[in-house]
Amino acid sequence: MLKIQVKPFKELSTQELYDILRLRSEVFVVEQDCVYQDIDGKDQNALHILGFKNDKIVAYTRIFKPNDYFEEASIGRVVVAKNERNHQYGYGIMKASIEAIKNHFNETTIKISAQVYLKDFYNNLGFKAIGDEYLEDNIPHIGMLAVM
Question: Which residues is 7 bridged to in the sheet?
Fold first, then answer.
């Protein structure tokens, strides 16, 4: 079971920030073999959803209020450590992120930019594909929207 914490950027400890950036780099840059600028200047405006197991960050997202990333509230940088994916922590961190958007932003419409191979995962959480597939950092993505 994940222990969830929701924190604005300025409340992240140096160690938490390091662990978040390391996890994102391990998955998005190394595992997915994708050279891209992960540190994009948007973390400061996000709320960070941290999923801990045994005091270690193993799942993470960042959420934005409307107009900070998309016109709608949004969830991004959804990541689960490779060795923890068999526990369905992806669902846990996403459900916590959806709740955080409701509680912190009073929003129920959420847009994401999803990697296409995860479309079914997001469908199971209530997201529906919108528009055509597109390449983002050479990885096929699709816009998805949910009204919770």
Answer: 48
Q: CA of 117: how far to CAs of 25, 81, 136, in Å?
A: 19, 17, 13
pTM for the full predicted model: 0.96
Which CATH number does 3-107 carry? Answer: 3.40.630.30
Judged by phi (left if over 0) then psi (alpha if -120 to 50, else beta), residue 15 lies in alpha
Classify residue 39 by its DSSP letter. Answer: -
Domain chopping of the chain, boundaries: 3-107
> Burial letters for 54-69: b for 16+ Cβ neighbours within 10 Å, e otherwise?
eeebbbbbbbbbbeeb
CA distance 113 to 110: 10
Per-residue pLDDT of the chain (148 residues; tens, 9 = 90+): 899 999 999 999 999 999 999 999 999 999 999 888 999 999 999 999 999 999 999 999 999 999 999 999 999 999 999 999 999 999 999 999 999 999 999 999 999 999 999 999 999 999 999 999 999 989 999 999 999 9
> Both tokens of residue 89?
């922590």
